[in-house]
Amino acid sequence: MCISYPRTGDQESKEVSKNTTKLGFASKNEAPPNNDYNWWFRVTMYAFLDVAGQTVATILGRLYYQKGGNSKWMGSFVQSAGYPVLFIPLIVLKLYSPKPTSFTPATNKNSPSVFTLGLIYLSLGLLMAGIQILYSYGMVSLPVSTYALVCGTQLVFTAVFSFFINSQKLTPFVINTVVLLTIAVALLAINTDAPVSATISKDVYIIGFFCTLAASAGTALFLSLTQLSFQKVIKRETLDAVLEMTIYASLFATFACLVGIFASGEWKGLKKEMSEYGDGPVSYVMTLVGIAVFWQVFSVGVFGLIFEASPLFCNVINTVGLPVVPIIGVIFFHDKFNGVKLVSLLLSCWGFVSYIYQHYIDHRRNKNR
Fold it and tell me: Which residue spans traverse the membrane (predicted)?
């Protein structure tokens, strides 16, 4: 798939610059015409896949640990191990994408070398593996409602990293989001008198809290570095380029987690873990398969939003699932939802609305240019 600009000279550069927004990396216009119902349909569909995939994968991940699973490396492994399913849309894109025309800019002229691409994929893959193991530690140590609320800090870290790495401007509304989510997380940090169970100490609770916080920061860094890689190195703004990066980064992440399973010795207990799983071996396998599949559903939504809009807009959509997971946690896992969590949730939603409003302002400004 190629993005063609059948213009010349200054006209082309002005048009591309005009369509490039401070919220995204692509030259696609993030403010489509009002009658572009197809664009809105695609964005809505990708947003649904993003939120639904993230919510179900998080719930299944918590279920895995609640029913007797205890391998943190296995919990990390399944977060990226489903990447082979992404070869299907990639192959379809390769087969049915339009052929380059005489007006299409030469995309291979300044293409990065295989070594450079491999280094990018390896670096992002190892970062992804680190994020996954941190999330696993957080999930096993925190109630799912607390875990989801702490994950909402990803928006704060994205704003910070985008400021330093991607030259994102910190407007008053973005700063308001940062402050509100920081207060929300601080409230959760001092609410350490409700550990997951009697077998988990307050120290383990605190470690899980900071592991989840570090994982959220790592995810934000991952998004910013991905955006930077597309801007400075890959320089291809196509969906197949996004899929390729995610597939190969996930490949390295999966391999790193596999090494972790054997290096930590957790592989020795997997057979016993499966046989003693609360709902039986079949449920054990289906739960892990479900986690892997729904993380890929989430990934498809992420890729689509990146392609259609921007990484930061994608990250904003991720936080839409913030109120969903705590509510499900209360219903199905009987998590305690006290006043502190309620205030934290309200502050998080307020911060989310503030960020969305900033995006709306940028959207309107873009249309009027």
Answer: 73-93, 114-135, 147-166, 173-192, 204-225, 246-264, 284-305, 312-333, 339-357
d(CA 175, CA 159): 8
Helix 172-190 to helix 154-165 angle (10° resolution) is 140
Rounded distance between C-alpha atoms, residue 5 and residue 310, angstroms: 19
Instruction: Using alpha carbons, select from 166, 161, 164, 159 the residue that is nearest to residue 181.
Output: 159
**Is 295:79 a contact under the CB 8 Å cutoff?**
yes
Task: Please give the pLDDT value at position 108.
Answer: 53
The pLDDT of residue 363 is 67
And the tokens for 241? 């380029």
Contact 208, 141 (CB under 8 A): yes
**What b/e readout covers 103-128, taking b as 16+ CB neighbours within 10 angstroms?**
eeeeeeeeebeeeebeebbbebbebb
CB 181 within 8 A of CB 315: no
Q: Give the DSSP per-residue string, 95-107.
A: HHSPPP-TTS--S
**Rounded Cα distance, 137 and 76, in Å:** 9
What integer pLDDT is reported at residue 135 of this predicted model? 93
E strand spans, the chain:
none
SS3 annotation, 39-58: HHHHHHHHHHHHHHHHHHHH
**Could you tell me how far CA 61 lies from the centroid of its own chain?**
16
User: How high is the mean pLDDT in each 10-residue block of the chain (369 residues)?
Assistant: 36 40 39 62 86 88 89 94 90 76 48 90 95 92 80 81 78 80 73 54 86 92 84 79 86 96 94 91 94 88 74 70 69 72 79 76 72
Q: Where are the domains of the chain?
A: 42-95+113-368
Q: How far apart are CA 140 and CA 76, in angstroms?
A: 11
How many DSSP H helices and E strands does the chain contain? 15, 0
Nearest-CA neighbor of 218 among 308, 132, 331? Answer: 132
